[in-house]
Automatic annotation (TrEMBL), chains A, B:
<keyword id="KW-0719">Serine esterase</keyword>
<comment type="similarity">
    <text>Belongs to the esterase D family.</text>
</comment>
<dbReference type="InterPro" id="IPR029058">
    <property type="entry name" value="AB_hydrolase_fold"/>
</dbReference>
<dbReference type="Pfam" id="PF00756">
    <property type="entry name" value="Esterase"/>
</dbReference>
<dbReference type="GO" id="GO:0018738">
    <property type="term" value="F:S-formylglutathione hydrolase activity"/>
</dbReference>
<keyword id="KW-0378">Hydrolase</keyword>
<comment type="function">
    <text>Serine hydrolase involved in the detoxification of formaldehyde.</text>
</comment>
<dbReference type="InterPro" id="IPR000801">
    <property type="entry name" value="Esterase-like"/>
</dbReference>
<dbReference type="InterPro" id="IPR014186">
    <property type="entry name" value="S-formylglutathione_hydrol"/>
</dbReference>
<protein>
    <recommendedName>
        <fullName>S-formylglutathione hydrolase</fullName>
        <ecNumber>3.1.2.12</ecNumber>
    </recommendedName>
</protein>
């Protein structure tokens, strides 16, 4: 692991690191906010949305202030494998390929060699973090935005003992049923839709709810709400399955980091209280 | 004036606007954060540093949370004239020309036609803001970062009744004595250094201190501290002249927006208490 940058922020340190990922067969960057003190600290994994890198969250969300106060480590990985030899959408679309790993393990050529963001996010990166940073891996949560909200919810539902708390901003809750998800899943996972259900929070919760309470914030003025996000699909399945959740429709807010920044404090306190 | 974007943020509105500037003879963008409610609100002008546009502050500083709480309007203009016909540094350097207007009125060709950021920041923009937004122009302050800290301090010292409060992050306090300032002033203002003193906070405070107390935060790990910023030059002149000020050297902090974000709340409360 190599430190690419380190900046003091709210008494702690905002770092960006690079390492050679085995799961993804490429070099990967990730960001870590480390509060002042010796730890061990509870750790939150932030999963970003389409087009993002490890930089968006740390520059725009304003999370460091509250992470410093609460003594939380926040890890923010990149959103896909990167670099030479990593295939991209043939037309360079923003919603597939680079910047759009969808936190799954691709099974289809040419994606399956590098696009293993599920293994990376759930295994390789947490192992590296536990080794290199003063975290209490027994107190870990996951949260994210849009595609990363999808990642957070599916990763929590599949690993409720490892990622004990979960929240999301504007998540893609039912990728199997919306254009972004259908495009990604058909390419990464193939046409057999039973494989898709393994990475679909709405399908997962119907099968196996977690014991946690999931917090979802959704901007009511979000341009992607009606076509891509559809939080009611998850809410309905969760209610039926007995999954505890809070879905807050936030009047007037859009899909941007201005929305995230406005409510990030609530999410950090939510996780801290439960970890 | 045209609204380019408007996003809900902490209950208020973060907007970006465009207008045809008479002072600068070009179209200019500026950002306005407007808290919830009817106002009239006190108004702060944020002046950004080298290379910035109206976007840097609103995406990275995390000011909206406290501006919302305190009921402050924050206006953040671009840092130079822009567009076709506006001359730039012949070599495209980051520290002169586009993105580097230095908040002065250029007197030398070819800069004098467009580079009138002093008139723009002190006259044209405040008049437009007073006309279009619910501000109490009698309660206005100015603050900024680096080149914009220089702008804030000189503008306050020259107009203490119009911009009543002043603070700065990592300001260029004595441009006449450092490389960034010497390059900009010799090009914009010519070789007669008596003209430079009109835009040099250290020279201005020696001649005419204000009745306000000026807050300066400076990161002690700032790479530009020793060569370009030199806050002690201002502190010495201010002490001698009887200018009240607080200079805080912040251990471990650099020149970035991570530093600004860490202390922006202090600055906003500082201004709000005094306006």
């Amino acid at each position: 692991m190599e430190q690419k940058s380190s900046v003091k922020s709210f008494g702690g340190t905002q770092g960006v690191y690079s390492h050679a990922s085995t799961a993804l067969s490429c070099d990967m960057n990730f960001a870590v906010y480390l509060p002042e003190g010796n730890g061990p600290f509870p750790v939150l994994y932030w999963l970003s949305g389409l087009t993002c890198t490890e930089e968006n969250f740390i520059t725009k969300a304003g999370a460091q202030r509250v992470a410093s106060e609460l003594g939380l480590v926040i890890v923010a990985p990149d959103t896909s494998p990167r670099g030479e030899g990593v295939p991209d959408d043939p037309e360079g679309a923003y919603d597939f390929g680079l910047g759009a790993g969808f936190y799954l393990n691709a099974t289809q050529e040419p994606w399956s060699k590098h696009y293993k963001m599920y293994d990376y996010s759930t295994q390789e990166l947490p192992a590296l973090i536990a080794k290199e940073f003063p975290v209490d891996a027994g107190r870990a949560g996951v949260f994210g935005h849009s595609m990363g909200g999808h990642g957070a919810m599916t990763i929590h539902l599949k690993n409720p003992d490892k990622f004990k708390t979960c929240s999301a901003f504007s998540p893609i809750v039912a990728p199997s049923q919306v254009p972004w998800g259908k495009k990604a899943f058909s390419n990464y996972l193939g046409s057999n839709e039973s494989a898709w259900a393994e990475y679909d929070a709405t399908a997962l919760v119907a099968k196996q709810p977690s014991k946690a309470e999931i917090l979802i914030d959704q901007g009511a003025a979000d341009n992607f709400l009606v076509e891509q996000l559809k939080p009611q699909l998850f809410a309905n399945a969760a209610s039926e399955a007995g999954q505890a959740y809070v879905l807050r429709m936030q009047d007037g807010y859009d899909h941007s980091y201005y929305f995230i920044a406005s409510f990030i404090e609530d999410h950090l306190r939510w996780h801290a209280e439960r970890l």
